[in-house]
Structures are given as structure tokens and as C-alpha cells.
Amino acid sequence: MPAPPLGDAYDWFRRGSALLEQGNPAAAALLLKWAADHEPQARSIREALGRALYDAHQYADAADEFAVLVTLAPDDDYAQFGLGLALSRLRQFQAAAEHLAIAAAMRPDRVAYQSALRQVRATITARDSAGLDPVGRSDESTNPLS
Known about the structure:
Order of helices and strands: HHHHHHHH
Radius of gyration: 17 Å
Largest sheet: none
């Protein structure tokens, strides 16, 4: 394992958050991972790490991070939303819809939550109508190009 960057968990969080805001999510994720490893219960660090991983297109890792957040704070609407988005990118549409519905119910004023939920539900309906597994498993597991 490489040596930790200079500073402590708070420094890594601040620098990682700045990198995320500057549009460098992969670099942000590296610093935020160090911070999360040293402060595993820090929800703000885990949220920033989940966002960085998602923005870096590391959807499975983002889903894992948001799942930890949901476990730490089931009433965190943003954690539910982030988990739903990441699961959607992983084509786990039914599970995504469940988390997005929770987020939307918690914060019905958030347009992004409602929009993401509608999109995933439309995907489930379209897949069902096309005779595909609406959950998003069967055709992906047999298609080597996906």
C-alpha cells in the first residue's frame, strides 16, 4: 500500500472536496478514500467519496459507498438518491427505483429526485414491454459487448 498523502483526514477531505468541485473526481476519490479509511463513520467524507466515485464513472464503488451511507443514516435522502443513481448505472433498475422512491418521498421538492425516479421507472416499463428482464440482469449477463 502506498504511503498516505501529507496531512490528516480533514486535510484529505478538504483537498478531495476541492478537487471534486474543480472537476477532477478521480483524483478527489483517491484523497477521499484515505479520509474515509481513517474516519469510517464520517458521513460528509463518505458522501463526497460517493460523489467522486460516481463522477469518475466508478459506479460499483459509488454504489458501495452510498450503501454504507444508507446504513449509517437511512434517513439521508441524498444517500438514497446517490445509491439509486449508481444502481441505475449498473443496470440494477428495480433496486435503483426503490432507493430513488425513498429519496423522492423524503424530499418531494427535489426535482432531480423525481426526474431520476421517473426515468428509472420508464426504463423498467420499456424493458418489460420489450420482453427483457425489467430488473436488468438476463440480457446483460449473456451479451459480451455490454
